[in-house]
Amino acid sequence: LSKYINVYVPTFDLAEELALRFQRHGYVVLFMKGRSALYAETHMCERWEYAELAIKQGLNIFENLCKRRLGGGNKQLCPHYNNCPYLDQWRKHIPAIRIFAHAFLSLPFPSPDDISFPDPDLVIVEENPTQTLLGKIQFDLSFLANKIPEANMLNSENSADLQDRLRRMGISSRSALERAKEIEDSFETRLTPDMKDEVLETQLQNMLRDESWKLVQFWKSVALEIDQPRPLHGIEIIQTEASDEKTEIQTLAQVVVHFRKEVRIHDSKPLLLLDADADLDINRLLFGSDLAEL
Question: Structure pTM?
Answer without folding.
Answer: 0.87
